[in-house]
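#data-curation
PF: Archiving a pair of folding outputs for the training set. Convention for this channel: one message per protein, sequence first, structure tokens after, nothing in between. First:
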Amino acid sequence: MMIAKRAIPKMLSEGIVVVGLGLMGGSIVRSLNEYSNEFKISAIDIKREPIERAIADQMIENGAVEQEEPEKTEKLLSENRLIVLSMYPAGMIRFLVEHGKALQPGTVVMDICGLKGDFVEEAQRLMPEGVEFMGAHPMAGREKVGYENGDGEMFLGATFILTPTEHNKPETIQEMYTFARVLGFARVREVGPAEHDKLIAYTSHMPHVLASVLMQAWHGEEDVKSFSGGGFRDATRVADINESLWAELFMMNSHALTQQLRDFSIAFGEFLSLMEAADYEGMKEYLKRSGDRKREWNREISRSELGKKG
């Protein structure tokens, strides 16, 4: 284990439980340990292997296999202040229904899944008296799955989205900012749960849809793999997808994603019309608008990184 480098913020000093030791959960425990070796970290998973591996790696002190060790699971939930749910959306509600009674007043439960909407309201309803639920979404990830693919540097420079509601205290929101900084995020943004899902349909779900569709679009006889360069690899990178997770996310966010697909169809139709009309000047203007918008987005991100607070 590394030598502790920094003082631990108060909320994080009272024990952390990560529920779900897949890619994201594994990256969180690694990132916490890279910040300091003095965190008290436990984990819960439906499988024994990631728990045993994380203990052997000295990433966690204790762990429980949920369905095999329900009493130990609830003991860990009752003894720690921050509970991070790193699970598929449907699994989170089941987990809270079955184990939420173990949560003690003063505990904060945070989820990190890619959807919020009605889920946040339902999760808050399930919280015992004195327990807060906070929705969050780390805008970072990889195509690989599993604890073994976790990376303590995966969050560096990324954006951490919070979806607080009127049920969250200002001091809890501030503590979540601190948690994000500890993990290495460069930016923290706050947005309502419903607005989050609308925005994510465009910036996260749509790229996965388009990459998947692009992989299905070739119907020629040539071995197209031999003709693919960097542009094609970049455009289809996220088509190497966790189909179970993303099918669930797409279906749960179907209203917002369907609207974004309709808007995309309009923009694509404009491009197609320019091609069919052989409108060179119109095509240049179309591409210029896209390039200008991308460059402005890049500048805004760079400015936010330069101006971020520690």
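PF: Second:
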Amino acid sequence: MGDFTLKQYDNIKLNGVRRQGEELRVFCLHELVKINNPEWQQAIYRFILEWLSPDDFVRAKTSGSTGEPKEIRLQKKHMIASAKKTIAFFNLSADKTALLCLSANYIAGKMMLVRAMVGGFNLLLTEPAGTPLKRIAEPIDFVAMVPLQVFNSLEDFGDKVNNVIIGGGAISSELSKKLQGLPTRFFETYGMTETVSHVAVKMAGEENASFKAMPNVIFELDLRGCLIINAPDIADKAIVTNDMVEFKGENEFVFLGRYDNVINSGGIKIIPEEVEHKLSEVVKVPFLISAVPDEKLGEKVVLVVEKYCDVVLNMADLSSHLAPYQIPKNIITIAHFPLTESGKIKRDEVKKMIAEECH
């Protein structure tokens, strides 16, 4: 690919000001040496400089939700192809305005910058905080958020935001209901660092909605019931995931949970994410479904909450939402949930913590 990215996509409009080529590079270098610029801004300028380099790849970290974060190389041509899919899907023409409110250290933030360079639209920058819309006055055509940001911004959307893509975690039943009736269009996304952002989307807030493939993406199942992603324009080879899914049509699926999270209790396989989705209607504090060793069952299902949560959980209320084999045998409290840098709960670490407490 050589320097083709630099020649074709070497300009970006940030906060209403367009800069290109050498002017953009010098601007980023100047911003990086300003001691008062916060880290979230510096991450943006570092990425733009990496994008403008003659290398045909950029470096990115995986989220670390299923293990230690690892650094991988992403081809710029794949990122451009991914950006074009999103630009076409959401009609992001050059006269539109988008908002970057996610860290440029991770794929979701990086791809917002790439989309702005490929699509030519204006990109507003704001701190990747819990309430990113508070200081935004102008209309927004497109923004990517994590579920917590969406939840905290429910009163701020109004008629100000047209399209929101949500990633980085599952949407609870409670949040899904709150999105219904709002004028903003919300889309839940499926993707990962290795697929340079999302490869499937579904309307959030709709009952029984399924993920539908983006253009030039084909899905298959392996023998475990896990998703295989074939997308030659964004990945050189098929990507075999640990995500258990159920197909609902051609290139359309419902996400069930991670294969490596499955709990085997007395020979019955229980998917924690499925139980969590059901319980999200009644448990209004951060929680997790996990398991501890059990002499009889091998593993027994438990519900984990943080100690600070001032809440009384009634097991009868929980049981009414679940199949008998899904009902937690105990409620365990821990000091706090260990999180990845991108805000996801480290399930394996929680499992080790509660196993030690119950030993």
